[in-house]
Structure formats: structure tokens, C-alpha cells
From TrEMBL:
Species in which this protein is naturally found: Sphingomonas carotinifaciens
GO CC terms, sorted: membrane
Gene3D superfamilies, per the entry: MFS general substrate transporter like domains
Keywords: Membrane, Transmembrane, Transmembrane helix, Transport
InterPro entries: MFS, MFS_dom, MFS_spinster-like, MFS_trans_sf
Pfam families assigned to the protein according to its UniProt record, in alphabetical order: MFS_1
Membrane topology: Multi-pass membrane protein
Residues in coiled coil: none
Domain Major facilitator superfamily (MFS) profile: 40-455
Bilayer-spanning residue ranges: 38-58, 78-99, 105-133, 166-188, 208-230, 251-276, 296-317, 329-352, 358-383, 395-415, 427-448
Name this polypeptide is given: MFS transporter
Length: 460
């Protein structure tokens, strides 16, 4: 039995048991964080905010885009989910390897430029095909953000201090989403009240198109700022090559049952989570008669505040669970609790009879979901060697986007188009929750049983 509560080590000659614990800093690890270290975190936070605004603004503008381009709900699902996810997955794994082995700032700056170009083209699209291609550009550009940020931050903060900066970085997702709804709704309302705008070279643009065009500008500014003011920290082992894929593959083989359960649990969670995230604003409009501006100033704050609270609350909750379950099981216990809660709240929220309770459930969902996302990033930093953290993050992001990101939204749209009807979008969301929420929870429970009885093995 190991010194960690309830976790047994594996007795195999070819592998060594490793508990998932935040290890002590190596001699070359970063020391006390400086003001510049926090400036780097703040800059990455700003990039994260912009990235998520550019990513989710399309979900908020679904209704005017659908009307203007004559799209079906299934086509909307393909544009919102699949188009982004396909190249996000492909680009994420490739960029993760590049980021682990080379200078990260030029790569990240190039990624920002690419997704900003995709945002611009989204506003110029005249039909489904070009809009699909534009969202693919956004996907491949944003694929480098999380792997780069996790790698950069973990090189500047040792393992005993990294939870807080990672939590702050992750809040950018929810600040960006909230701003996309609140700012996007206000901007769309103001632009809709004006006649279409005539721009040089591109012609006449309706209100929703102008939103995309204006959002493309800050990306160029942030890319230049990143290159001019943020420098890479020298890594603990600068002469060591980036680890080969074989090391990760040996780890997977040594923990095949655990990895399979964790992967399928995350897949089920992402199917439910992405479908809800991308369709909830449209559901509020269809089921509760809310306008775009109504959604902006009710669901937007719920998304922003709930998500921020979940990100910042993950570290103290995980530490508290660590005192009860030990540092090995606490990340798993937190994730299990989040999944079990989401199985209930994501089912109930879309079926609420009034807009107030539907928005309240949205805030709860954002809080719990954000807490689980932050916990996973902390876990990656704890487990992965410094020069494999971008790769591990890239694989995780690829998994959730290849499944939930690519097909969660499409499945919701297919349910409304072919089975339930557009007016019953809320029922489609609850059906997704009823299927995938309990499945994710049960699979995570089985994964925890493996950790308790067998431990976690690293290839020797």
C-alpha cells in the first residue's frame, strides 16, 4: 500500500507505480514568481479571452446567420461544432509537438493571426461552404493556445504554485464567453438598428457580419504585443530533446484500462457539454421568447460569473478533497462530483418553465463545468514531464473536440431537424444530458476504482 490514502501501487517488473501528486520543484525549477511572471499570465489571459470570444460568438449569432444564409439546424451544428473541431484536433496534436520542442511565442503569435483571419472571413461568408472553411481556420489557429499556455505557465511557476495561475488563465474561457454574449448582443443590437455598412473592398455588410469584422482586429494587436513583450523562460533541461511519442505510448499501454475509462468518460462529458454550450442561447430565444439582447444581459453574466467562480474555486476545493482522499484521488474525486452534478443540472435546465430558472441553471452548469476543466489542467501539469505538457494538453483538447466538439452540436441539431422539431430544442438538450451525463459519471467511477486498487503506472 502506498503512502497515499486508499491507493495501491502496482507490483509489476516492467512498470513503476507513480502517484499523481504535485511533485517538489527540481533544482532548476522556477522560484518565487516575479511581477513579470504574472504579466505573462495576464497576457495569456487576454489571449484566452479573445480566443474564446472569437470561438463562441457564432453560437450567439445563430439566429441572424441562419436567416441570412438560409441554413438548417444541422448545418448550423456543422459550422458551430464540426468545422471548428476537425482542424482543432489535427492542428492541436501537431502544434503541441512543435511547442514542446521550439520557441513558443512566435508559434502562438502565428496561431492568433490565423484564427483572427478566420474570424474576418466568417463575416464575409456568403454561404455555408465559406463559413465552414472560415471556422476551420479559427479551429486550427486556436489549437495552439491551450498547449502553449499550459507549457509557458508551468515553466514559470513551480508545481506548488501553479494552480492559481492556471485557474486565472482558464477563467479567460468564461470571461471571453460572457463578453461575447454581452458585448456581442449590444453590438449586434446597435448595428441592426443601422442600415447595412459599406466597407472598402468587401462591400455592404449586415449587422452580424460587422461583429465578426470588428472582432478580427484585436488579434493582430495581441500577436504583436506577445512578440514584443513576452519572452520564453529557459526550461529546466534546455539541452534535452522533446520526448518522443513512444514515451507517451508506453504510459498508455501500462495503464490501458484506466486510460480507456478516462477517455470514454471525457468523451461522454464533452458530447453533453458542447451541445449545451453551443445551443443554450438559441434555446432561450426559442423556448422563452428572449431576444438576442435579453440573452446577452442574462445568460451572459451567468456564463461569465459562473465560469470564473468555478475556475478560481477548483484549487481550494481540490486541496480540501486532498485532505480527505489524498492527493492521488482528489482530482478524480473532484471530476466525479462535477460530472454527477452536471448529469442532473444539464438535464433540468433546458426544461425549466421560466427564463429566470433556466438562466440560474446555466450559471450552475458553468460553475461546475469550469471547475472540472481547471482540475484537468492541474492534473496534466502534475503528471506530465515539463517537455511533454504541451503534448498531453494537446491530446486532451483533441479528444474532447474530436468527439463533443465535432458531433455534440450536430447531434442536437439532427434531433431538432429530424425528430423533435425546431421548437423543441430544449427537449433535445435534455435528451443529450439524459444519455451522456450518467454515462460519463459511471465511467469516471470505474476509473477511480482502478486508481484505488491498482495505482497508476509509468513505463519504466
Amino acid at each position: 500500500m502506498s503512502r497515499f490514502t486508499g491507493v495501491r501501487t502496482m507490483e509489476r517488473p516492467d512498470v513503476a507505480a507513480i502517484p499523481i501528486e504535485l511533485p517538489p520543484a527540481a533544482p532548476a525549477s522556477p522560484g518565487v514568481p516575479t511581477g513579470y511572471d504574472w504579466y505573462v499570465v495576464a497576457t495569456l489571459f487576454a489571449v484566452s479571452v479573445l480566443g474564446y470570444v472569437d470561438r463562441v460568438i457564432l453560437s450567439f449569432l445563430v439566429e441572424p446567420i441562419k436567416a441570412d444564409l438560409a441554413l438548417s439546424d444541422k448545418q448550423v451544428g456543422l459550422v458551430v461544432g464540426t468545422a471548428f473541431a476537425v482542424l482543432y484536433v489535427i492542428g492541436g496534436i501537431f502544434l503541441a509537438r512543435v511547442l514542446d520542442g521550439r520557441r513558443r511565442m512566435p508559434v502562438l503569435a502565428a496561431c492568433i493571426i490565423v484564427w483572427s483571419a478566420g474570424t474576418l472571413v466568417s463575416g464575409l461568408a456568403g454561404g455555408f461552404a465559406l463559413l465552414f472553411v472560415a471556422r476551420m481556420l479559427v479551429g486550427v489557429g486556436e489549437a495552439g493556445l491551450n498547449p502553449a499556455a499550459v507549457s509557458i505557465i508551468s515553466d514559470r511557476f513551480d508545481a506548488t504554485r501553479v494552480q492559481r495561475p492556471l485557474g486565472l488563465f482558464t477563467t479567460g474561457l468564461y470571461v471571453g464567453g460572457g463578453l461575447a454574449m454581452m458585448g456581442g448582443g449590444k453590438l449586434l443590437a446597435e448595428l441592426a438598428a443601422r442600415p447595412p455598412q459599406q466597407l472598402p473592398l468587401v462591400g455592404v455588410l449586415e449587422g452580424w457580419r460587422m461583429v465578426f469584422v470588428l472582432l478580427a482586429i484585436p488579434g493582430v494587436v495581441l500577436a504583436v504585443l506577445l512578440l514584443a513583450t513576452v519572452r520564453d523562460r529557459q526550461r529546466a533541461s534546455p539541452d534535452a530533446p522533446a520526448p518522443a511519442h513512444g514515451g507517451a505510448w508506453r504510459f498508455v499501454r501500462a495503464n490501458a484500462a484506466l486510460v480507456t475509462l478516462l477517455a470514454t468518460s471525457v468523451v461522454a462529458w464533452s458530447m453533453n457539454n458542447y451541445g449545451l454550450l453551443n445551443w443554450y442561447p438559441a434555446m432561450l430565444m426559442r423556448s422563452h421568447g428572449m431576444t438576442a439582447q435579453d440573452v446577452a444581459w442574462t445568460y451572459g453574466p451567468a456564463f461569465l460569473l459562473g465560469g470564473m467562480a468555478g475556475c478560481l474555486g477548483a484549487a481550494p476545493v481540490q486541496r480540501a478533497l486532498g485532505r480527505r482522499f489524498g492527493m492521488v484521488l482528489s482530482p478524480f474525486a473532484l471530476t466525479l462530483g462535477c460530472m454527477a452534478t452536471l448529469a442532473v443540472t444539464t438535464f433540468a435546465g433546458p426544461l425549466m418553465p421560466d427564463r429566470g430558472s433556466a438562466v440560474a441553471f446555466a450559471a450552475i452548469n458553468m460553475f461546475v463545468s469550469a471547475m472540472s476543466v481547471t482540475s484537468v489542467f492541474i492534473l496534466i501539469v502534475a503528471v506530465a514531464p515539463p517537455r511533454m505538457r504541451a503534448l498531453f494538453t494537446g491530446f486532451y483538447m483533441a479528444l474532447v473536440n474530436l468527439t463533443g466538439g465535432a458531433f455534440g452540436s450536430v447531434l442536437v441539431g439532427a434531433l431538432t431537424d429530424n425528430v423533435l422539431g425546431a421548437e423543441r430544442l430544449n427537449v433535445s438538450l435534455s435528451v443529450m444530458a439524459a444519455v451522456f451525463g450518467p454515462l460519463a459519471t459511471v465511467l469516471m467511477l470505474f476509473a477511480i476504482r482502478i486508481v484505488r486498487t491498482r495505482g497508476i503506472a509509468a513505463a519504466g
